[in-house]
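User: Please predict the structure of the protein below. I'd like the answer in structure-token form so I can feed it into my own downstream comparison script.

Assistant: Understood. Taking the following sequence of 153 residues as input:
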Amino acid sequence: MKKSINILNKKAKFSFELIDSYTAGIVLTGTEIKSIRAGKASIAESFCEFNNYNELFIINMTIQEYEHGNFFNHKPKAQRKLLLNKKELRKLEKEVKNTGLTIIPTKLFINENGYAKLKISLAKGKKLFDKRETIKDRENKRNLDRIRKDFKK
């Protein structure tokens, strides 16, 4: 492979407080993995949800249609099953049902074996004042770095 694929969910750290993270496999078809390898996927507005059979699915993940695919091409916004151990699935389901946390994807990547993996995080939504604190901290850090850079010259 010529380059590594890292598709990030940049809004996740800003909108949510990330508590715990897991790496999950994804069930994909042939044209879906080809589109991901071409970098034509987005996890910006996606989330994860359990179905009636205690299986975890990613919802609202966009994988654009493969341009060289024919009538066997996939649907861009289909639900895709995530693969985790039973122990991890039980723990995640318990946390989601009992404490009201959500599961959001933070990173889509291809590992060294060529498989598409999704890094998911158990997250708690931030309030408006928490988001303001995040912005304030980021600006303070940026100003401090500017001062250090000027001081070193």
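That's the full token string. The chain has one domain: 6-126.
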